[in-house]
Amino acid sequence: MPNVYVEPRPKGRPEGTAIEDYILEYAHGARVDQVDYKTQAAAIQAARIAGHSPLVARVRHTDKGNPGHWRAP
């Protein structure tokens, strides 16, 4: 099962601003699908159904190369 990243959007949003939606991305930045998920739980469920291992952000500004920024739900 390949890892996919549940990315909150908009990316790099300032502190205190709302998350609009979530997307699924591979490590190299390509989207897994073209769906914008309204909740993190919906994105996690879609990743699992597709056979992927989802990772969710631990920090506001993420870097896919830094494993400390991600955790398994």
Describe this structure in words.
The structure is a single chain. The protein has 73 residues and is α+β, with helices and mostly antiparallel strands. The chain has one domain (3-71). The protein contains one helix and four strands. The chain has one helix at residues 40-49; strands at residues 3-9, 21-25, 53-57, 70-71. A four-stranded mixed sheet has the order 2-1-3-4. The protein is globular, with a radius of gyration of 11 Å. The model has no long low-confidence stretch (mean pLDDT 91).
Question: What does the secondary structure layout of this molecule look like, with pairings?
Answer:
Blueprint: E1 3-9, E2 21-25, H1 40-49, E3 53-57, E4 70-71
